[in-house]
Amino acid sequence: MCGWLMAVGIIPSQLYAQQPTDTLKLNLQQSIDLLVSQNPAVKAANEAYQQKEYELQAAHGLYLPQVGVSATFGITSKPVTLDLSPVGDALEGLYQLSAGQTQLIGALNPAITATPQYQQLLLGAQQGLAAVSNAEWEKVLLEDKLGKVSADLKWPIFTGGKIMAANKAAKASANEMSERARMVTNSEITTLVQRYYGLQLFMEVAKVRKTVLEGMHKHLENARKMEANGMISEAERLHAEVAYAQADKEYKKAVKDVELMQTALKSTLNVTSPVLPTSSMSIVKTVMPLESYIEMARQNNPVFGQLEQKKLMANQAITKERSAYLPDIAVMGSYDIYRYNMSDLTPDWYVGVGLKMNIFDGLAKHNKIQAAKIQRKQVETAEEKIALDITTGITKVYQQMEQAVEQYQSGEVSLKFALEYLRIREKGFSEGFATSTDVVDANMNLSKVRVEQLKSVYEYNVALAALMELAGASQQIGAE
Length: 480
Prior knowledge:
By secondary structure, the chain is α+β, with helices and mostly antiparallel strands. 65% of the residues lie in helices and 15% in strands. It has helices at 28-38, 40-60, 85-108, 116-134, 162-228, 234-269, 290-300, 302-322, 364-430, 436-471, and strands spanning 4-10, 24-26, 66-75, 80-83, 138-142, 145-158, 275-277, 281-287, 328-340, 349-356. It starts with a strand and ends in a 9-residue tail after the last helix.
């Protein structure tokens, strides 16, 4: 299918001569920029992406050591003690024996008792005996109330790939949310185009209805004059009255449609001031062949981007479950910053390497791996269906664009005929050769043709927005 070029422009209607002072005069690109910054749905999607970015940063932290402070305090049923009384009794016996032997030697040899060596030996035995007798031979090793504050460290140095898989999965999750935010933005841009050009369409329709109303008013005045001059019957004048009332009704409905679409557009842009479109609703587009849009969608549609990231997450889930067959190894350490009633016999710091490995878990690891593989298969199956749906959708809206152009082109001939037909009927009525019904029908036919022309251009632009959304290129619409 070849590309085609069509040049048609409809300038935005100045339906209201006096615009409110706070009216926002926006072209389509300015409206898109405002939507991206203020639309609640777009903001919520971007905030969800930011959340995933922070989760990714958190996953990076798994590579780093974990340092923390812990505090414990406890009460035991009784203190932990060490009774050394038997040792004391043995030492006391030894000192008593030593003192007795020293005194016996002095009794057998009185001359030696005056020597310094004898006195020193006797004094040492007596002092030792006193020390043993006065010593506390029951030692408290651990009080019944104790506590400590410690600084702890744990640094995984091998996890079988769990940490790397967690980081890759977190990255894929963030990328998926980025694609989702882009999908939401593209969808809102399509809605914006519908309402932006919808407002312009209704303003133009209201302008057509106003022109018809003015024409019916002029026709009614002429009918009243001609009735007064006896040129037409009362029935002819009444018919003009009815036509004028119907034109007035349709004009008021058109104005109401403008107000409703204005409200919808303000809601999309999240603004309170009235919006006046300044970009022309037109068919001035160089359209590429259908296959080019299909290929563009395969490269840029955010749905495919999301599916690609889901596949990456499924792959990392498989890696994570497989890593459960390998041990976790970590460097660990602790240092007591503060100790309360802790024994000096216990160390105040330690460092070491720990290993943990699950040997048997009831085949849970195997089943989890199989579940992760099924998850990946589900994504691949969904991708095939979505690719078909998107191709079908692109073909449909492309044909709608072609149909809109064809309708506009055929309407050009109808518009020329309707203008000439109305001119002839009005002239004939003024000369008495045409009835009021002829003039009213000519007016209605002209307004119908004009409205159909407007709708053709509108439908073209809406179909183009839908095409660009499916192709993943909605941001380019404002630059067209």
